């Protein structure tokens, strides 16, 4: 004890010392404690922000010159962004609200002369949307610009059958168009505009002309196929029949196609007849189709013949062997659409390509190659148009394909058992349309007639196209493509001198 007292403890120390409790705080006192400390801090040192805040509120700071640009523009459908006044003030201080952002179109002005990038920004969108060089042979340069027919002719009594071929244009040396009207056949020289009546068929024995086709090697010869099954060849100069063949079953004639003096004709029973102007009898017949042959077309090199029927079956025949290619081991099965096929076209600059077009309910263009046909032939290109395709024409001057159309329909209506299509508005309805190859992208589409386009044919130079509409009883001529200008070959040194 004495030792403790000597160390400074009080004399009344009893041996146990009560520790002093620290002052604790409760959550209720937090606010007061922090507020007191905050007050003491603020009261100890005071600052005046008036000089710093005043320029922001009263005097906007001009943006400093910048040497960077983000090339960000507003979308056309948005007029402006929703911002508050405070956001605008802050953005103005940092130089974000000026002529370089949040604007879709930026006109030039004198106030932008201090910005080295304003001219680039103003013309940036124009650089991206610079027009491409359009080929002078493309339909974009002709049909796409004009979108109007050049000539219209009357065709009273044109066959109303959608699978008829009432129009043909001579393609070798002459510029003559022929048309079938009722039981008569007329032709007109488009250079002199002279109209000539060629023939009038007998109603009882010959029926009505359903298909007509000019001969390529003999421009004065015109083939006429009738609804009674007879096939005639007329001389347009002498106005007399050269040859006439009559089908034993009197079946209506379908498509027709010439190869020299040989004429291939499709008939209603599913056969193909071959007639030579030098022979009085048919020189051959092929029977493989099960329905009426709607179209037949010789290839540009004359080695193959394509035929199509009402079931959508397409066959390719080898003219050199007299056999159908789809029966050979290398070529495989038949080509098939899910609707009648009338439109057939062989490519002039790639003879192995065959374009086919179907009607309701398929409405597709398909491109086949006879070199790549397998056991189950597959098209190399297909485009669904949901519109009847009545004819196809390849351009001889560029890689484009023309198609003519009739009624369009809604694809959803195909689920119901409807025999006839329910018409639906479409840009392709009753139109003349041009597609690029091989993408089959639509380039130009022009409404040609008020009704369905029944058929089309190309002119001698391959730039003009005639269309016929049975509902209007009218024909129209269109400028579709152009011819490439051939530049004279520059004389070379090797042309002047030779090596001995």
Automatic annotation (TrEMBL):
<keyword id="KW-0677">Repeat</keyword>
<dbReference type="InterPro" id="IPR036322">
    <property type="entry name" value="WD40_repeat_dom_sf"/>
</dbReference>
<dbReference type="InterPro" id="IPR015943">
    <property type="entry name" value="WD40/YVTN_repeat-like_dom_sf"/>
</dbReference>
<feature type="domain" description="CDC20/Fizzy WD40">
    <location>
        <begin position="153"/>
        <end position="478"/>
    </location>
</feature>
<feature type="repeat" description="WD">
    <location>
        <begin position="286"/>
        <end position="327"/>
    </location>
</feature>
<comment type="similarity">
    <text>Belongs to the WD repeat CDC20/Fizzy family.</text>
</comment>
<dbReference type="GO" id="GO:0031145">
    <property type="term" value="P:anaphase-promoting complex-dependent catabolic process"/>
</dbReference>
<dbReference type="InterPro" id="IPR033010">
    <property type="entry name" value="Cdc20/Fizzy"/>
</dbReference>
<dbReference type="GO" id="GO:1990757">
    <property type="term" value="F:ubiquitin ligase activator activity"/>
</dbReference>
<dbReference type="GO" id="GO:0010997">
    <property type="term" value="F:anaphase-promoting complex binding"/>
</dbReference>
<dbReference type="InterPro" id="IPR001680">
    <property type="entry name" value="WD40_rpt"/>
</dbReference>
<keyword id="KW-0853">WD repeat</keyword>
<dbReference type="GO" id="GO:0005680">
    <property type="term" value="C:anaphase-promoting complex"/>
</dbReference>
<dbReference type="Pfam" id="PF24807">
    <property type="entry name" value="WD40_CDC20-Fz"/>
</dbReference>
<dbReference type="GO" id="GO:1905786">
    <property type="term" value="P:positive regulation of anaphase-promoting complex-dependent catabolic process"/>
</dbReference>
<dbReference type="InterPro" id="IPR056150">
    <property type="entry name" value="WD40_CDC20-Fz"/>
</dbReference>
<protein>
    <recommendedName>
        <fullName>CDC20/Fizzy WD40 domain-containing protein</fullName>
    </recommendedName>
</protein>
């Amino acid at each position: 004890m004495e030792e403790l007292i000597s160390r400074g403890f009080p004399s009344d120390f009893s041996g146990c010392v009560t520790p002093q409790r620290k002052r604790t705080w409760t959550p209720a006192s937090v606010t007061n404690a922090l507020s007191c400390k905050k007050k003491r801090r603020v009261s100890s040192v005071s600052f005046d922000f008036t000089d710093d805040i005043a320029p922001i509120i009263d005097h906007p700071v001009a943006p400093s010159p910048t040497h960077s640009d983000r090339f960000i523009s507003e979308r056309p459908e948005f007029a402006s962004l929703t911002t508050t006044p405070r956001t605008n003030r802050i953005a103005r201080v940092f130089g974000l609200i000026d002529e370089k952002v949040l604007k879709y179109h930026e006109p030039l002005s004198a106030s932008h002369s201090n910005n080295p990038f304003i001219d680039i920004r103003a013309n940036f969108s124009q650089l991206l949307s610079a027009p491409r060089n359009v080929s002078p042979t493309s339909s974009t340069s002709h049909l796409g610009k004009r979108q109007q027919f050049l000539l219209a002719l009357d065709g009273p009594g044109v066959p109303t059958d959608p699978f008829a071929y009432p129009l043909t244009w001579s393609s070798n040396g002459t510029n003559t168009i022929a048309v079938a009207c009722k039981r008569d056949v007329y032709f007109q020289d488009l250079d002199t505009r002279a109209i000539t009546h060629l023939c009038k068929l007998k109603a009882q024995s010959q029926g009505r002309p359903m298909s007509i086709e000019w001969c390529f090697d003999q421009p004065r010869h015109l083939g006429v196929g009738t609804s009674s099954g007879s096939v005639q060849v007329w001389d347009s100069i002498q106005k007399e029949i050269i040859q006439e063949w009559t089908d034993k079953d009197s079946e209506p004639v379908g498509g027709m196609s010439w190869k020299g003096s040989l004429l291939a004709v499709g008939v209603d029973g599913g056969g193909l007849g071959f007639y030579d102007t030098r022979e009085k009898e048919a020189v051959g017949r092929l029977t493989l189709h099960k329905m009426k042959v709607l179209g037949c077309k010789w290839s540009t090199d004359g080695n193959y013949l394509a035929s199509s029927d009402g079931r959508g079956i397409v066959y390719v025949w080898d003219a050199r062997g007299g056999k159908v290619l789809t029966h050979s081991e290398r070529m495989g099965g038949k080509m098939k659409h899910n609707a009648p096929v009338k439109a057939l076209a062989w490519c002039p600059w790639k003879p192995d390509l065959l374009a086919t077009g179907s009607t309701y309910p398929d409405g597709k263009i398909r491109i086949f190659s006879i070199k790549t046909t397998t056991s189950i032939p597959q098209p190399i290109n297909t485009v669904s148009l949901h519109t009847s395709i009545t004819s196809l024409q390849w351009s001889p001057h560029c890689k484009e394909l023309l198609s003519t159309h009739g009624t369009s329909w809604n694809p959803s209506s195909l689920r119901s058992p409807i025999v006839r299509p329910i018409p639906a508005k479409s840009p392709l309805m009753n139109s003349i349309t041009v597609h690029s190859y091989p993408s089959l992208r639509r380039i130009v589409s022009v409404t040609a007639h008020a009704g369905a386009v029944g058929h089309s044919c190309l002119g001698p130079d391959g730039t003009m196209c005639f269309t016929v509409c049975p509902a209007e009883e009218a024909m129209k001529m269109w400028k579709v493509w152009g011819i490439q200008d051939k530049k004279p070959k520059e004389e070379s040194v090797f042309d002047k001198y030779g090596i001995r």
